[in-house]
Design goal:
globular; alpha+beta; four-stranded antiparallel β-sheet; 3 helices
Length: 101
């Protein structure tokens, strides 16, 4: 089943529900700052598990106390799709102190 790119207006509306996430070029991006390198590394492992469950993977970078993500949908020509927002929401729910609820 093909995945369709989202219109710009819908991307902006969805981003409003995900504090800290932004659109940079054709990718959703977010950086998290955690209390330690170990906490950041643990978050990377949890994000990797979610990506496997969704069968949708971001560029994921582990820094000293940071985790950065950048994602779009290659099968949609590198556009932002619902799959990207599903991943962003799941990551947002995982990140300590940064989740939706």
């Amino acid at each position: 089943m093909p995945v369709e790119p989202l219109p710009q207006k819908e991307i902006e509306e969805r981003l409003a529900e995900l504090p800290g996430w932004s659109l940079e070029g054709d990718r959703l991006t977010r950086a998290y700052r955690l209390g330690s390198h170990f906490a950041a590394a643990a978050l990377v492992v949890h994000i990797a598990q979610v990506q496997e469950e969704l069968d949708h993977h971001s560029d994921l970078t582990l820094g000293y106390h940071t985790v950065s993500l950048s994602v779009n949908t290659h099968s949609a020509g590198g556009a932002v799709t619902d799959k990207d927002f599903q991943l962003a929401r799941r990551v947002q729910d995982l990140a300590p102190g940064h989740g939706a609820g």
